[in-house]
Amino acid sequence: MGLKPTGESSAARFGELYDCTYADVLRFVRRRAGPDSAEDVAHEAFLVAWRRLEDVPVECHAARAWLFGIARNCLLSDLRGHARRNALSVRIASETLTTTDPDDGLALRLDLVTAWHQLRADEQEVLSLAIWEDLSSQLAGRVLGISSAAYRIRLHRARAKLRQLLDTATFPASTADYLVTERTI
């Protein structure tokens, strides 16, 4: 079965592509990802297909294989995101242990994790680019698609919010200072 040529309506062509391949792409992703993220990854693949509709092969089987490649890349991107978030949680936990008393260390980690999860995702991203990725404001701005000045403003606001969320009296000064002080970028 062939898909409509690119001269046809983009919406009609995409609709036919979706009808012809969605179930197969979803099964492809489900075999590689958990059920929690399979539909999101499959939809991301079709979003890419919509954006690159001119690149989608006309033949249904070829389009299906092309979408498998796109879905695989979306899945890998999703897995990298999960790995980064997990690594970030581990780094937060390991970098907050500055005390010899295990109970104090646990309390520090819990306070920091609680404060971290109260931040919006964009605030977490801005802080992680500065603290854990150690990127300059120019490079971090490029990652986020904004100017370095806009990045510095967002970083300043995210640090201020984290400062507000943390009860610095419960943290050793070195831990709280490391997390929220502005370093030269």
UniProtKB/TrEMBL annotation:
<feature type="domain" description="RNA polymerase sigma factor 70 region 4 type 2">
    <location>
        <begin position="112"/>
        <end position="162"/>
    </location>
</feature>
<protein>
    <submittedName>
        <fullName>Sigma-70 family RNA polymerase sigma factor</fullName>
    </submittedName>
</protein>
<keyword id="KW-0238">DNA-binding</keyword>
<dbReference type="Pfam" id="PF08281">
    <property type="entry name" value="Sigma70_r4_2"/>
</dbReference>
<dbReference type="InterPro" id="IPR014284">
    <property type="entry name" value="RNA_pol_sigma-70_dom"/>
</dbReference>
<keyword id="KW-0805">Transcription regulation</keyword>
<dbReference type="InterPro" id="IPR013324">
    <property type="entry name" value="RNA_pol_sigma_r3/r4-like"/>
</dbReference>
<comment type="similarity">
    <text>Belongs to the sigma-70 factor family. ECF subfamily.</text>
</comment>
<dbReference type="InterPro" id="IPR013325">
    <property type="entry name" value="RNA_pol_sigma_r2"/>
</dbReference>
<dbReference type="InterPro" id="IPR013249">
    <property type="entry name" value="RNA_pol_sigma70_r4_t2"/>
</dbReference>
<dbReference type="InterPro" id="IPR039425">
    <property type="entry name" value="RNA_pol_sigma-70-like"/>
</dbReference>
<keyword id="KW-0731">Sigma factor</keyword>
<keyword id="KW-0804">Transcription</keyword>
<feature type="domain" description="RNA polymerase sigma-70 region 2">
    <location>
        <begin position="17"/>
        <end position="85"/>
    </location>
</feature>
<dbReference type="InterPro" id="IPR007627">
    <property type="entry name" value="RNA_pol_sigma70_r2"/>
</dbReference>
<dbReference type="InterPro" id="IPR036388">
    <property type="entry name" value="WH-like_DNA-bd_sf"/>
</dbReference>
<dbReference type="Pfam" id="PF04542">
    <property type="entry name" value="Sigma70_r2"/>
</dbReference>
